[in-house]
Amino acid sequence: MLRTITLLAALALTAPAAFAETQRDCASDNHEVAIAACTQLIKENPKDATAYYNRGISYRQTGKLDLAMADYTRAIELDPNYYEAYNNRGNLFMARGDNKRALQEFDAAIKINPKYAIAHNNRGEAFENMNMLDEAMTAYNMAIQLNPKYSRAIANRGDIWRKKGNRENAIADYKLALTYDPNNGLAREGLKTLGVNP
Predict the structure, then answer these.
(1) 71/80 Cα distance (integer angstroms)
(2) What is the separation of C-alpha 68 from the centre of its chain, rounded to a whole number of angstroms?
(3) What is the Cα gyration radius of the chain?
(4) Which of 56, 131, 135, 163 has a CA-to-CA distance to 124 between 20 and 30 Å?
(5) How far is the C-alpha of 117 from the C-alpha of 108, rounded, in Å?
């Protein structure tokens, strides 16, 4: 009898550890592992919005865009304040060329969390795709104001300066972006376009 109690106690201790490991795996950069772990979490708790969100990220990274869209949508249904899910769903609409719908998603994310710099940057990209350069500049400026070291937003702003014919400001932004992220391909490409070595 003592052995049974001890075994039950051991099982009780390992169950939370196993659950925590599954949660970690669900957020893994190994997308096949993440999909399996998130699916397991969803089976155990169909209302786990974070598991849907994380699985959506892995589906997107493995090219399963329709499944990613479905998971982000489910995450939002379960948690209407899940601003990251709105943002990621916006990225999928933008990838499909539906920039107007993407803007609606980014706006929804910002309404929930006005300080979410990533959504401001993504708004800028959607505006830029629509050749609305002034609106894009405003969005990038807001992203940079919220996160002054946001390399992607700074490089994006450099693109707007370049498209507006302001070479000096474009170069300054591209170089600034590279100080925060030396591997920023957008900034490197922008400098190359202007005939400047990074």
Answers:
(1) 13
(2) 12
(3) 21
(4) 56
(5) 13
Which pLDDT belongs to residue 20? 77
Give the side-chain half-sphere CA count within 13 A for 7. 4
pLDDT-derived band of residue 8, with 50, 70 and 90 as boundaries? very low
Any idea what DSSP says for residue 46?
T
- For the segment 96-101, the average pLDDT, to the nearest whole number, is 97
Backbone dihedral angles phi then psi of residue 145, each to the nearest 5 degrees: -60, -40
Q: Which runs of consecutive H residues, i.e. helices, occur in 27-150?
A: 31-44, 49-61, 65-78, 83-95, 99-112, 117-129, 133-146
Contacts 24+ apart (CB under 8 A), 50-55: 50/26, 50/75, 51/26, 52/78, 52/85, 53/82, 53/84, 53/85, 53/88, 54/26, 54/27, 55/26
38 burial type by CB count under 10 A (0-12 exposed, 13-18 middle, 19+ buried): buried
pTM: 0.87
Q: What is the pLDDT of residue 198?
A: 79
Other Cβ atoms less than 10 A from the Cβ of 102: the count is 26
What is the per-residue pLDDT across 40-66, written as a single tens digit (0 to 9) for each? 999 999 999 999 999 999 999 999 999
Two tokens, residue 87:
């943002």
Within a 10 A sphere around the Cβ of 150, how many other Cβ atoms? 22
Q: Are 186 and 156 spatial neighbours (Cβ–Cβ below 8 Å)?
A: yes
